[in-house]
Amino acid sequence: MKAASNGHQSTILIVDDDLVALALLEHLLNGLSGCRALCFKSGEEALAWCATEVPDLIITDHQMPGMTGLDLIGRLRQESRTREVPIMMISAAEDREVRYQALELGANDFLGKPIDAPEVKVRTRNMLSLRRAQRSLSDRSELLAEEVRRATSTIVAREQEIILRLSRAAEYRDWETGSHIMRMAHYARIIAGELGLPEPQREAIFFATPMHDIGKIGVPDYILLKPGRLDDAEFAIMKQHTLIGHRILHDSNSDLLQLAAEIALSHHERFDGSGYPNGKPGAAIPLAGRIVAVADVFDALTSERPYKREWQVEAAVATMKQDAGTHFDPDCVAAFLQGLDAILEVRGNFRDGEKVPRPI
């Protein structure tokens, strides 16, 4: 006993083992404008229908063989699809204990026996109004959530663009090229992935890594642009770029810039504690800093600099392996080696251009 669908109508499920009561309710509710009634003789049948469809209102009798009305209400409220659907129970006025139990389980209203036609129509309209209000609120909530997602995505994209542009600005005072920061960012993401870090953390490291040397904007030109190796005094000044970068970035409200500050400060620390600026060992070095240290050194070894030739990949990889446990976190080196094919592919895609100091 199922009524045919007539377009966008409110669907009302009627559950009753009494065929006379079922037919009466079907007749009354199909007579309401914009409504269609679907009739089921058992709670089991109704639940099976609700497994793939969502009604606007459920009317159920209490006393039925097998699954009772109370059982049905309990099951419906356990399912996410029907958790918010209004439910009316058919019960006699004297069945107060049943009504209390139904309310506890999640029933919204009651129809008394014997069934009164005007009452059925009024209560049904009220429940359908409740359902429309629920759906309107849900639709608005989804719309607002989508607008928030879009706005957040725009803000994140702008933040990422600003970080990349600031990184490029810093490189205008260095011998390195924009390819260096892109390679490093990709290397760091690959290593983070091989370490099993979740995608949001991998992406954050990818976008924060280009800021690792932002502090070089505070290093004097005669040191930063020196074509040969630095002496001890010059190197002591150069090491300050880690602290400068951290001071530039650390007090931001942005999680991404705070991560960039952490990387700027820690990417020259060494696993054995002999690095700078704070001489932190092992796990005391933030994981992002340990990851970027591997990415930075490998790219430096395999890139030409004014004071050195480009190393062959095999020699650079051998050095990375040799320095695992002293310079580098062994786990990060292992992750680097696992992702080496992807790293070399990135290296091929981001080749250096002309390496000359650019005027300010």
Mind explaining what this structure looks like?
The chain is an alpha/beta fold and 360 residues long. The protein is built from 15 helices and five strands. The protein has helices spanning 19-30, 43-50, 69-78, 96-105, 117-171, 178-194, 199-208, 221-224, 232-238, 240-249, 255-266, 287-301, 313-322, 330-338, 340-349; strands spanning 10-15, 35-40, 57-61, 87-91, 109-112. Strands 2-1-3-4-5 form a five-stranded parallel beta sheet, sandwiched between helices. Helix 1 (19-30) links the parallel strand 1 and strand 2 (35-40). Helix 2 (43-50) packs parallel to helix 3 (69-78), helix 7 packs across helix 11 and helix 12 runs antiparallel to helix 13 (313-322). The longest helix is centred in the middle third of the chain and has 55 residues, at 117-171. It is rod-shaped, with a radius of gyration of 34 Å. Mean pLDDT is 86; it is low at 1-7 and 354-360.
Fold blueprint:
Elements: E1 10-15, H1 19-30, E2 35-40, H2 43-50, E3 57-61, H3 69-78, E4 87-91, H4 96-105, E5 109-112, H5 117-171, H6 178-194, H7 199-208, H8 221-224, H9 232-238, H10 240-249, H11 255-266, H12 287-301, H13 313-322, H14 330-338, H15 340-349
Parallel strand pairs: 1-2, 1-3, 3-4, 4-5
Helix pairs in contact: 2-3, 3-4, 6-7, 6-12, 6-14, 6-15, 7-11, 10-11, 11-12, 12-13
Radius of gyration from the alpha-carbon trace, in angstroms = 34 Å
Find the structural class using helix and strand composition: alpha/beta
Average pLDDT level: 86
- Note the beta-strand portion: 5-15%
Number of strands: 5
Main sheet attributes: strand count, strand direction, barrel closure: 5 strands, parallel
